[in-house]
Fold this protein.
Amino acid sequence: MHTVYSRVNNVSAMLSTCMMVLLAAISLSTFAFTAKPKGSISVSSVQVLPGNARRYANKNQDFAFVNFNVTADLTPLFNWNTKQLFLYVSAEYENKRGVKNEVVIWDRIVRHKEDAQLSVAGRNKYAFRELSASFKDAAPAHYSLKYNVMPYVGVLTYGEAARTAEPVPFPERQELS
């Protein structure tokens, strides 16, 4: 009963139980930290240009190019259990058939609290296209800065740091000359 294997088993069981209790306490303690980050997003211009999709070379589609300004203070989201933040700007609109769409047009990963003061004047990083081939008769879009807090241990939390006050309409398609 007091063999080496028995003692190793008892010690490892005790250590793994303590480790699991510690990880559960860390995971539950992050719910006590509620942070409301402040930010603003504004769209300076939207252009709609024709183009061909990569998958369907013969299909002519509209592509939207969005210039935006984002400022946000995301430091309240960092605590001792925050590994990194995933930030993204999304456009939410309804197409002419009434289908609601949410398209991610820009993203960034913030790994350090020092980098959480965000001031970006940029353009969409990813293709912004309408699957029905045209933004004509599409409802104006709301743009928002959203975040995902990735902890070392625990549940992922999501939120919204900024949103445009008024929806931004899509302009008429510009022809390339």
In short: The radius of gyration is 23 Å.
